[in-house]
Design brief:
The structure holds two protein chains of two kinds. Helix content of chain A is 78%, strand content 1%. Chain A contains eleven helices and two strands; from the N terminus they run ααββααααααααα. Chain A has a two-stranded antiparallel ribbon with strand order 1-2. In chain A, strand 1 and strand 2 form a beta hairpin. Chain B folds into two domains: 232 residues, P-loop containing nucleotide triphosphate hydrolases (Rossmann fold, 3-Layer(aba) Sandwich), CATH 3.40.50; 67 residues, ACT domain (Alpha-Beta Plaits, 2-Layer Sandwich). Chain B is 40% helix and 27% strand. Chain B contains 15 helices and 13 strands. In chain B, strands 5-6-7-3-8-9 form a six-stranded mixed sheet, sandwiched between helices. In chain B, strands 11-12-10-13 form a four-stranded antiparallel sheet, covered by helices on one side. In chain B, strands 2-1-4 form a three-stranded antiparallel sheet, covered by helices on one side. Chain B is globular and about 70 Å long. In chain B, 37% of the residues are buried. The chains are: A mainly alpha, B alpha/beta. At the A-B interface, helix 1, helix 5 and helix 11 of A face strand 1, helix 4, helix 5, strand 5 and helix 6 of B.
Chain lengths: 267, 358
Amino acid sequence: MNLKKYLTLTRAGIIESLQFRLSAVVMVIGNILYLIIVYFLWKAIYASSGTDVVNGMTFTDTLIYLVLATALYGFLEMYFVWEIGRNIQSGKIVLDLLKPMEYRRYLFWSYSGTFVTHFFFTFLPTFIIVAVFTHGAIHMGINLLFFIISVVLAVSINYSIDFIVGTICLFTESIWGINMMKQVIVLLLSGATIPLAFFPDKLREIVYCLPFQSIYNAPLSLLLDANPQPETLTKVFGMQIFWSLIIWAISKLFWKVSIRQITVNGG
Amino acid sequence: MKCGTIKHRCQPYKQFNTNAEREETMSAIIEIKNATKEFKVLNRREGLLGSIKDLVSRDYKIVRAVDNVSMTIRQGEIVGYLGPNGAGKSTTIKMMTGVLEPTSGEIIVNGNEPYRNRSRNAQDIGVVFGQRSQLWWALPLVESFRILKDIYRISDEKYDSIMKLYRSLVDIEPILHKPVRQMSLGQRTLSDILAAFLHDPKIVFLDEPTIGLDVSMKAKIRTLIQALNKERNTTVILTTHDMGDVDALCQRIIIIDKGKMLYDNDIEHLKSFFGSYRTLKIRINGDHEKLAEEIQKELPDFSVSSDEEWISVLVDEDKEKVIDVLGKLQKSHDIRDMQLDEISSEDVIKKIYEEGVS
């Protein structure tokens, strides 16, 4: 059974992440503080604009979007770059390389358990709270299914990007700066901090062509769209599938070239 | 005598009791031919200005970590791989496991070139790297075992039989349900060794497995390694600085220094050369360095060295008894303290380096 060796890592990840109860609590508190800031910031933005609808979004729309984006961030951001970087610095990567499994897969599946727990402990509660408080502002229908498929693709793209950035650490042997840069770029261009509707037209067109919007904007727009048009679906999913394949191939190739470099030159 | 010549003299040999034993043991599992590993290292400059210049520097030097090493290791052997820090032991092991690719030469492990097919090679080897653990930190040991069981696709029967073997060898129950992070260093090393043998690999690499452990734990681990080697006919490559490990486990040792192979033969062979050596350590009031020079003049036959704490005399008891040497020194110096040691692995290597084995 081939899948078993991956699922066992998922299982271990779930058990492992459940061990750290305190960190889960701290994360929830941190998120709440962040959301309070978001609430007042956007309240001020809407108040100063003088209208109820800015760039086609009401205050409630924006807030729902940003709260869910934060919840999504809570389980999409797995700090893979840190993990890879730390493994390289400590030399633990040697042990991981000697598992009878491709490193890229090994790392992903080792963390898949954390995805599961974070989904249930941060995203789902936030989603339910938002759904209850906004009295049906989120449509409950086929859009939920589209959202889940879209999130799976987002996870894949996000992981590949992280893996590429992590691989760079093989050469730089430092993590902090590179990780910061990656986070800022991804969070801004994906629409995780500011909805893409607020971007200037030209910039938005460019951003739509980049892979980052497939991580946050794509699943969230599908979730909040009550009756998605077939064109929208093809466009969003097409873009996500296209980028997940491209970035997957790049990360795989880049890793292959880099690890060869390492086996030749030593780490 | 130069070290390069020694290697050719000491052909590895083994005494076999029966023909069957010979056949079983003869199959080579690791075959290294003239392996060399070079690293490109940036020549770092000093100071702030130097560091800035280094950012764009192309000034590399080539460091040869492993230099033309050849060896053949047979199924079921326990080989002690010795050498001072930085001798190239870990680099050789990394090449054998497939993490590093040799710059030149050939390495065949279990019929494969390990670096070309690392994942497949991984199925047949187990590793324990000193203080680094491959176990799942937050989970009880038995969970780590279950994960490894699935990753290495160990069948239920095989898993049960190896667990049965483990139970018969060590008292595993108290640690089996303990999270790894709560274990003592000794328990963790023990667990790591058990984990490395779990998928019944053909070869296990143990990189300084007894480092930092107390005497009783060391003994326990040595017994375990020996039993597993015997039960499963697992080939064990062991690097260590502890001569106790070597004495307890290895029939054969390979010594490497500065990347070059100095010695490859039975341990008995080596002991017969150095068995009569003892290190006499004495402490005298005064400048040790100066006193060591004086003592060297008094005892021209033996090598004398000194550090802050001790003046060490490497005495060959075939030439002169330690007690006589001590008597001599007592007459001319005021000895405050003394200690008598077996020859250390460092001394053996130094000795081989200086005089060779003939």
